[in-house]
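for ur thesis appendix - 4-hydroxythreonine-4-phosphate dehydrogenase. copy paste whatever u need, i formatted it the way the template wanted (i think)
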Amino acid sequence: MSNSAAPLLITTGEPAGIGPEITLILAANGQLNNTVAIGDIQLLNQRAALLGLQLDVVEAAPGSEEVSSPGRLVVWPAALREPALPGVLNPANAGYVLETLQIAVDACQQGHAAAMVTAPLHKGVIIEGGFPNFTGHTEWLRDACGVDEVVMLLATDQALHAQSSHWQGSGDLRVALVTTHLPLREVADAVTYDKITRVSRLLAADLKRQFGIVTPRIAVCGLNPHAGEDGHLGHEELDVIIPALKALRAEGLDVQGPFPADTLFTPRHLVGIDAVLAMYHDQGLAVLKYAGFGQAANITLGLPLVRTSVDHGTALSLAGRGIADPNSLGVALALAKQIAARRANASIAL
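the 3d part is after this line
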């Protein structure tokens, strides 16, 4: 259970990537009030010195009430397994990255933190570091929290602050995914009646709970080109998606479609829509990132805690150069604060 008065936590992510430095940049800019980072103290001090940031990095015990303030970053420590250099991946530090996540989950569940915000990690190096079943933050958090289903939702900054369906333009998007980190070859088999209905119910429930949308309206993509064109370009729409949406509408959910994805993602088709449900990762997120890359956040729906994240990866080629853009992390922090407060208020109302 989260406590909205408690600090927000930032896990600093892959130590060779830009996660540590975008955290430090926001701290140096005075944007991390009532926030605590989780990471290696020596790494953060070294990276701050490399970037020439005027910032005090101080250690505090996990669960303590000490929080960051302008020019001061408070850190709950986790120890690197081996020293980390900007841009140089090291599988030995895979366990360190997962440790930072576990510290954050434990703190949120114990009421010591209002929410967790994650900087990017590198899936490949975690797999190489001895965790062969790792597929990403979303699935790891599902298992760590002991829930059966979670949904990945990305939203642009403008859409994050809109509690109505009056979209203003192509930069306003909320996109959820039926499947997440799967090879494309496996997607069709994973798009099942049960999966669509579970994800849709969870998406509708958390649009109400976390975004304050009273009656969510969801537009659903087809899987195939032209949404299957009446079975001539694939049967998943006829056999799976349409029956699932019919059942959901009978339950009272406002789910529309399936629509061809190549035309759904245009402003006039999004009028009156609160979120788009895409069948697979790149179907939805390629469009969203074109519309608002660097100004969007990732939200995991269905967790007993609040988790948001950046909309980008580790950017190894930018690490240590002082040119990484911290805006998405700032958006993710603002969203985490907003959702934590809304969930706390809803609990009080109950």
